[in-house]
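Researcher: Here's the sequence for the chain we discussed earlier.
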Amino acid sequence: MSEGTSIGSRDVPDADLVRVGEVDSSEVPTKSEAVVGANEATTGGPARDSRQGVAADEVRRHNLGAVLERLHLSGPLSRSVLTKMTGLNRSTIADLLGELVALGLVEERPGSAGSGPGRPSPVVKIRPDRASVLAVELAVDSIGVATVGLGGHVYNRIRVARPRGRFSPEETVQDVAKLAGPLLASLPAEHVLVGVGAAVVGITRRSDGFVHLAPNLGWRDVPLASMLAAELDLGTPVLAANEADLGALAEYLRGRHPGIANLVYVSGEVGIGAGVIVDGKPLLGSAGYAGEAGHTLIDPHGSVCRCGAIGCWETEAGEAALLRRAGVGEGTGRLDEVAARAAAGDEPTLQAVAEVGRWLGLGIGNLINLFNPDLVVLGGLYQRLFTFLEPSVLDGARQRALEAPGEMATIAPSALGPDAPLIGAAELVLSRVIADPAHVDGRRVSGRVGAVGRRGR
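Model: Thanks. This is the structure I predict for it:
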């Protein structure tokens, strides 16, 4: 599978891509920037005014978060490397690590002997069980659940298909509880559960996890986070957000090129969603409703969308459009049939994929003009079919994108595959731990838990 192609006259070389753990201290954001950025991934709030004074305890909280964030994203690091990456002096790093060790979030081990003089620097690593998350993804035709620890450690995950029966919100949260029980029971004994994160294919208010509209689920005005909290009955916070926004967060933190400051994630299944990272911060809007690109106008004379409008982008480039053009009926497993036909070189199927790719590219060209990203990441069915979609997507994007932003943009498939929103849901909760490590709002739960749910399913 291709790793991505520039729609302009040049590719973006790897040397131009900022990678977590591969920057020198002069390129590392300030401690305030690092932690505030993590907090904004959760709240979507504005950046703190740089002219305000900062109290000593707030500086320490920022520094703790900066160190923990480096370990969370980069894996085990020596004290000396942490000193270079954060720009903090050795004594400050030692002091901060002492507190993180006391909090149980990290552990230190002796470093391996090097060739140079002096004692080797201790190596610091995350303790994933000290901040664990239940991550949930509610897609149109599947439910994904995973248990994830600090540092991005995935303990277990499961994804089950469900028919397009427009399952009610009540049935959905019951299904989540049934799937979550065995996963939570298999976590290490005495782990600390810090929260539940949920990604959902709908217009979702971040402040309280309220789904205003999920047309492809048949939902309207659903208090999803509250319903999950009541059904799971875990005593921890439940956060919910749009799946494309969380896919973008996951790609920004853990994707093919982590740390790219300007990124657009386009997710496709029945509908189309877009998550946007601008200057290293998620673009969410005032309530978290930004990024509903699937419901932007692409063809004024097109089909009626499930949202009620005419000519939405997803009516021409979503899964239903692909199946229709390929002559395949809608339903579970139909996309597998299209993928198999395309892989076998079936010409009508390849033409159908190319036509959907052209419409997809036209919409991507609009996004390139709007946001001037370095990278456009394709997830969902677009990631799966990228090999066949790529030529027509590039052609469509070149038709719409202006020359200057088009030359800067690379289009690539997701490196995280279908689990990008699930990983993002975990990061949504873990960002709160990173923002304030000394006040982890978690619950110590025995690994012998046998059932989850308010009725003990």
